[in-house]
Every structure is written in C-alpha cells, then in structure tokens.
Amino acid sequence: MSRRAPQQDIDEAHLEVGAPAEAAAGPKAVAITMKLAVEQMGVRRTAATLLKLNQADGFDCQGCAWPDPDPSHRHTAEFCENGAKAVTEEATLRRVGRAFFEAHSLADLSDRTDYWLGQQGRITEPMIVRAGGTHYEPVSWDEAFATIGRHLGGLDSPDQAAFYTSGKTSNEAAFAYQLFVRAFGTNNLPDCSNMCHESTSVGLAESIGIGKGSVSLEDIHDAELIVVAGQNPGTNHPRMLSALETAKRNGAKILAINPLREAGLVRFRNPQKARGLAGRGTALADLHLPVRINGDLALFQAIGSLLLEWGCVDRDFVDRHTVGFEDWATHVKAVDWDVVRRATGLSREQIEAAAAMFRDSSATVTCWAMGITQHRNAVATVKEICNVAFLQGNIGKPGAGLCPVRGHSNVQGDRTMGIWERPPAVFLDRLRDEFGFEPPREHGLDTVAAIRALRDGHAQVFIGMGGNFVSAAPDTEVTEQAMRNADLTVHVSTKLNRSHVVHGREALILPALGRSERDRTGGRLQRVTVEDSMSAVHASHGPLEPASPHLRSEVDIVCSIAEATIGDRYGLPWSDFRADYTEIRRRISRVVPGCEAYDEKVDRPGGFVLPHPPRDSRTFPTKEERAVFAVSPTEVLQVPEGRLLLQTLRSHDQFNTTIYGLDDRYRGIHQGRRVVFVHPDDIAALGLRVDQVVDLVSEWEDGVERRAPAFRVVPYDQPRGCAAAYYPETNPLVPLDSVAEGSNCPTSKSVIVRLEPGQPE
Ligand SMILES: Nc1nc2c(c(=O)[nH]1)N[C@H]1C(S)=C(S)[C@@H](COP(=O)(O)OP(=O)(O)OC[C@H]3O[C@@H](n4cnc5c(=O)[nH]c(N)nc54)[C@H](O)[C@@H]3O)O[C@H]1N2
Ligand SMILES: Nc1nc2c(c(=O)[nH]1)N[C@H]1C(S)=C(S)[C@@H](COP(=O)(O)OP(=O)(O)OC[C@H]3O[C@@H](n4cnc5c(=O)[nH]c(N)nc54)[C@H](O)[C@@H]3O)O[C@H]1N2
Ligand code: SF4
Ligand SMILES: [Mo]
Questions:
Q1: The last residue of a domain, from among 70, 91, 112
Q2: How many angstroms separate the alpha carbon of residue 412 from the centre of ligand 3?
Q3: How many CA atoms lie within 13 A of 308 on its CB side?
Q4: Which of 351, 608, 647, 760 could anchor a disulfide with 601, C-beta 3.0 to 4.6 Å?
Q5: Mutate-to-test residue for ligand 2 from 109, 168, 451, highest number of ligand atoms within 8 A of CB
Q6: Quick check: pTM over 0.70?
Q7: DSSP letters for 480-499
Q8: Where's the Molybdopterin dinucleotide-binding domain (predicted)?
Q9: Are 447 and 593 members of one domain?
C-alpha cells in the first residue's frame, strides 16, 4: 500500500544536516521567538500578546500542558520559544478568506503540505463543500448548523456519528460538547488523548485509582531525583527545563532514559536569567541511559529487582498502602538479565548506576511522555513505573510522585469535563441528576474504533472540535479513506489543515475564536477555564481583537449545533450557556467531582488544584482500596534481520501536525523534515550511504506493506537497531490495528521498518 505524499513535501533540496546541539534554549531561542512573532504579528501586537501569556490576568498558553508557577513567582515573560510560536501561529495577521478558496480548488489544496496549509493564515468565515463540489464556498452560520442538524437527525442511530476533540478546547466548551453528545444519545467521544497519554490514564487508574499525575511544581523543585523517561522537554515542554534547573540548584540529580541524547536534557541555558544568556548554562542529566526503543518495561523491572536486592523497601508504605507486593517481588527477583540486556540494549553496570540513583534518593519524581505511552506494552510499562515508585514509597509525599507530562494545553481538563468514550458511571449519574435525562451507558468509540467505524460504513458523520484528525491518526491511507466514506465531515478550526481537504461527501469548516482572542459571545466579555498537567485549574482571558468579525466561540458553536440537532429536547439550557459561561461553570460545579464552587475558585489568582487522593492523603481509590503492584511479563520486541525499530517523534519546529518551520536545530536539521535518523553502523550494515534517499516500508503481522517515500538517511547516535523520523510524515507507516494493549493507543513509537533505496538521484 502506498500513499502519494504531497509533491511539495518531498522536494527537500534545501535540507542541511549539521551536528546536534549540546544545550537547549539560550539567546538563540529568544531571537527566534521574536523574529517569527514580529514577522507574523508586527511589533505592537507581539508585545501586547506575549506580555499577557501565562499571566494571572492574561491567557493560557496554547502550547503544552506544563503548569505555570505560583503567581508570586511569575516573570514578565512567562513563556518559552515554543509557547511564543504557538501564540504567533494563532495571532498571525495572515488570513484565508473567500478569494483564497476561489483560487485554490480542493484538488490543489490536497497536494499541499500541512505546513503550507497552516502558513496561509486564519480562516475567517464558515465554508462548505457541497456534494460533488470542487471548491470550498462560503456558507452562512445558520445554513451550516442546519446542515449538521439534518445529517445527524437523519441517522438510524446516534452511534453512527463520532465527535472528536483535540486537547485545546476549554473546559466550558468541552462540558457543553459532551452534554450535547450524550443528550443526542451516544458516548462516541474519541479524543487526541486516545493517541497520546491514554496508556497513562489506563495504567494509573489500575495502579493508583486515578488516571492523573500526583505531583506539583514544588515537588519537582524539592525532589532529590527526577527521572525523565521517554520525553523530550527541551522541545515539547521547554519551561520544564526551568523547573529542572531549580531542582538541580536545590541539589537534585536527574536521570534521562531515552534512546536519543536530547539536547534539552544535557544542558539548559535559561533565557529568563542573565547567566543563561551569557554563560554555559546548567548541566541537567547526571546520567543518560540510551535505552533501546520499547525497553522501558524490562528496564524498570530490572531497577526494581536491584532495589529489592539492596533492601531499598519502604516497608511501612508497602504494608499499609499496597497490595500485590509479594507476587511482584517474586517476579522481578527472577528477572532474566539476558532478556533485560536484549530488551534494553543496556549493560547491567549501566542499569546498576541508574538503580543506585533511586537507592540514594529519598524523594523521587518520575516523569514520562510519548516514549513510554505509544507502545504495545505501554500500559504495563506505566504500571511498572508505579511499582518502582511504590517500592520506595515515592507517592503522596513532598518531592516525590508520578508525573506524566501531558501534551495539549487542556487535554487533561477535557477529560475531567467528560470528554471520554468510557465515562465512569458516577459521572453519568450526576449528569442525569443535574439535567434530568438518562445518558447512554454503553461505551463509545475511541479514535482507532472511530476510524474503523467510518471505514466499515458503521458511522457516517464525523465532527472534530479542533485538531487535525487525518494527519494525526495512524495508517494515513486507511484514515483518509475512512473520512472520504463519511456523508458529512465537520471541523471546528482556527487554521487550515489536511483534515479539511480529505473530507466526506459534504464538508464544513466552522472557524472558531482562539484562546488569545476576546470572546464577546452573548454580548459580554467571557472568560474560559483550563486544567494543566498537574491538575491546576485557572481562568484564561484573551486580549486580542478576533481574527475576523465572523468567528464564533467553541461554546457558541456547540450550543448552536445542539439547538439545530436536538432542539429543546430535555429543556437543556443552550441559550443560557451562550449568554453567560458562568452558567456552564455553575453546572460544572454540580456535576464534575472536585469542582464544587468552581466559579469562585477559578477567580483566585492562579486558580485551584483539583483533589487527587493518592497525592493528598495516600488513599488509593482502586477496587482494592490500595496501590496495586502489577505483574507483567518481561519481553523483548523482536525485530527481524535487516529491519529497524522506528519511533515517530516531533521536531523542534512543530506542534503536532502544525508545522512552524522546517528546522530541528537541536538535532542539527535545517530546512527539511523528510529525514530518518539511523546509527552510523546500521547505515553501513544495511549497505546504505549517508544522505541516500530511501523509502520507509513498514512491515506488520497483517502482511500489508505500508510505505512513506523519500527520506534522507542521517547518521545519529542511538542504540543499534533503532531509528527515528518525524510525525506526521511517518503516520502512513503506523498500522491502525497495532495498538497498546488495554488503552488502544497507536504504537507510534515502535514501528518495524525496512529502508528501501529510492529512485536514483
Ligand atoms: N513544541 C511542541 N510542544 C509540544 C508538542 C509539539 O508537537 N511541539 N506536542 C504536545 C503533545 S500533544 C504531546 S503528547 C507532548 C509530547 O512530548 P514528547 O513525548 O516529549 O514528544 P515526542 O517528540 O513524541 O518525544 C518522545 C521522546 O521519547 C523518546 N522515546 C521514543 N521511544 C522511546 C522508548 O521506547 N523509550 C524511551 N525511554 N524513550 C523513547 C524519544 O527519543 C523522544 O525524546 O508534547 C506537547 N508539547
Ligand atoms: N505517528 C505519530 N502520530 C501521532 C503522535 C506521534 O507521536 N506519532 N502523537 C499523537 C498525539 S500525542 C496527539 S495529542 C495527536 C494530536 O492530534 P490533534 O490534536 O488532532 O492535532 P493537532 O495537530 O494538535 O491539531 C491542529 C489543528 O487544530 C486546530 N486548532 C488549533 N487551535 C485551535 C483552537 O483554539 N480551536 C479550534 N477549534 N481548533 C484549533 C487547527 O486547525 C490546527 O490545524 O497526534 C497523535 N499522532
Ligand atoms: S512550556 Fe508549554 S505551556 Fe509553557 S510557554 Fe512553553 S509551550 Fe506554553
Ligand atoms: Mo499528545
């Protein structure tokens, strides 16, 4: 199976490859931020916007979900290079209006890359593709909503529609959206989390009884050991480096577990401090374990085994708060070091050095992200990380805990608000009691299941609240066909992307206000609320004039879709919601556990922190009412001779499918993205040459060959047998059915590929 990549995408004549960087941030980060921002926003708008970013009276960064410091500790410039890029992308003065869509047919647009599409600017009015149409045309808001109402109303069952959410949506919009979807009659609420930290949410829920992390920013500052596993904070959570720097200055050690030696984990030059701008910066990682891709389960078992052997057990915690210790101890004591070596690619000495860091710390925080969650055994790996934390009592005490670092700025809040295809019964009970209707109880479609349903004709309507489903989802060719099968695809969006041009028989783009913009829905200035990765909830107020007078807020759009679809069914208060979001927050406070007196609490400077029983009182709301030691088999991911294990990751110049630019300067890549990083000895062993252009061909158990053409081979230090290339260009290689057991998260970090020389250059 092959996919015709947009032609433009493959033309990489300008690609330059240099040496990877030795430090992250520093003056270059500041210079790049300012150049991009001023180019797209002008000087005045840049200043007005960036000064409000992450301030108590300002707006929440649209970038990642890293928390803000306490208001008394904020800087004037409380953002990073990538936060500024995220804001610039939204606050740009570029526009795509009617003339643009007249000039560019759908055929033309579908040949463009996501980069080109995104660079054209903000969408200014609702657009439609009518059945058989060759272009997007303007459509009134009323006709757009009526079209949605007609399609949804015409389905045989509400389960024939899927309602996707990307994690930027505010709590208010998310709450209204899930209410509408459930009143319509389905739990088909797939979200980006299904491709992201779902393995975390499932694993943590089983191990500690709640699917969220247990630390605060203070815990990071106070930790004695911080483990950063499968995460590249220098690019994806840059302000985390400031927290790591503070921890280092307080005496912490840092252990990095990553196949790649990521610049951000080596050394950090804090752009907010004079010493960071002038000096060499702070060395961060004390030890880097270059683990083989997918080796973390075996690695954490081996670390657990050594800690047991060395008697590093918090007996009091284990006895009082956990179950399953003996079985787990028996299992990891018997760990086969030969299997561990093959799985991890690490020597026993390397693992002993890491285990000694755990031994010598009385307060350890373990952080992780996509390097852990996007594998077949990801849920088991998350549980193994928990096991090691339980062994030393590293949860529910200062300076210690579990820290999954979330991706999208409000992905955690959306889940709290009920964006979940498998909602807990208590949430549905409270929804019923508050709104007087019985919500559907049957679990709905997640992302992978939604693609299957569209592919197989079991679903006919797709609605996306933000995001870029077509590019973000696995198995691009299958996903694209699934979307083309739909009768109607709808995207609530700020910028143009590939999901708009790979569409159903009819398609709508509904342009929404971004978070940086003033929201005057209902004739009053509205604010919204969001939750970060550490369960802190706070308000966000956009300072800018909207990109176009025709934009509507996500809340307004949801309420209007609801009215057009279910009318006044159950007497739900759509017009009250739209008139004043305070009314939504009042309902949130009555439905969502932990959100009592919501509106008052978000008004406090810095907001409030949601309850987390393991963190707050070492109580574990699992079935067993204890933290659960889980036993998982040790395994080695087998890769056939002549093949490589490919991870698909982010460059420094992108936010998921939004490409800001073509550089990945920490890894030495300039002006191109179609590169595959391979160990120099593997390049030789495979009979390839540096700089050669190859196709990546994925081989999976279904026998289908998936191909992504034309990647340049770049030598890069990493464990033998591993490789890396950027997402989303590599999404055609990830099989739809290759998912994490228990969470259904696509295995984007372990794809078996062969490198096939392309056409002669
Ligand atoms: N600027 C920017 N910020 C972002 C994003 C963005 O695209 N751009 N995306 C946001 C989102 S939605 C998310 S989810 C996060 C993602 O944040 P990350 O998880 O940091 O993102 P990735 O680029 O996928 O990087 C995964 C890291 O895991 C390592 N890795 C891969 N496989 C393995 C493995 O098997 N074991 C171990 N130990 N490590 C492994 C890779 O080398 C890489 O360093 O970032 C968020 N923030
Ligand atoms: N191969 C591979 N695939 C992956 C991953 C990987 O590591 N490897 N990572 C996965 C992960 S972790 C994630 S989270 C998903 C991301 O999946 P998504 O969340 O679906 O993708 P994004 O690229 O973040 O979505 C960008 C689009 O959102 C829209 N948008 C931006 N801001 C707003 C806003 O304020 N409101 C509205 N309504 N729309 C807005 C814009 O139109 C923009 O084009 O991708 C997943 N896919
Ligand atoms: S660390 Fe994340 S949330 Fe903070 S400014 Fe940077 S991108 Fe925005
Ligand atoms: Mo994510």
A1: 91
A2: 15
A3: 21
A4: 608
A5: 168
A6: yes
A7: HHHHHH-SEEEEEESB--HH
A8: 644-749
A9: yes
What does the pLDDT average to over 546-568? 98
Domain check: are 345 and 258 in the same one? yes
Say whether pLDDT at 275 is over 80. no
Q: pLDDT exceeding 70 applies to what percent of the chain? A: 98
Residue whose CA lies nearest to ligand 3 atom number 8? 83
Three-class DSSP labels, 12-61: CCCCEECCCCCCEECHHHHHHHHHHHHHHHCHHHHHHHHCCECCCCCECC
**Residue 7 pLDDT grade (very low, low, confident, very high; cuts 50, 70, 90):** low
Ligand 4 centroid – CA 167 distance (Å): 8
Q: Are residues 341 and 444 in the same domain?
A: no
Q: Single out the residue of 687, 676, 692, 690 nearest to residue 760, CA to CA.
A: 692
The ligand with the least distance to the CA atom of 191 is: 2
Ligand 3 binding pocket mutation candidate from 54, 79, 236 (most atoms within 8 A of CB): 79
Task: Single out the residue of 212, 248, 254 nearest to residue 402, CA to CA.
Answer: 212
The whole domain housing 262 covers 210-407+624-628
Both 253 and 329 in a single domain? yes
Q: Give yes or no for residue 649 CB within 6 A of ligand 1.
A: yes
pLDDT tens readout for residues 194-221:
999 999 999 999 999 999 999 999 999 9
pLDDT in tens, 655-672: 999 999 999 999 999 999
Q: Which residue has the higher pLDDT, 699 or 278?
A: 699
Banded model confidence at residue 245, pLDDT cuts 50, 70, 90: very high
Do 527 and 566 share a domain, yes or no? yes
For the cut 90, the answer to whether the pLDDT of residue 755 exceeds it is yes
- Is 22 contained in some domain? yes
Does 659 share its domain with 744? yes
Greatest pairwise CA separation for the chain in angstroms = 71
CA-nearest residue for atom 12, ligand 2, is 196
Q: Over the range 405-437, which residues count as b (16 or more CB within 10 Å of their CB) and which as e?
A: bbbbbbbbbbbbbbbbbebeeebbebbeeebee
Task: State which of 76, 91, 106 marks the end of a domain.
Answer: 91
The reply to whether 453 and 598 lie within a common domain is: yes
Confidence of residue 6 (pLDDT cuts 50, 70, 90): low
**What average pLDDT score do residues 611-617 get?**
98
Q: What is the mean pLDDT of the chain?
A: 95
Based on the structure, what is the number of domains in the chain?
4
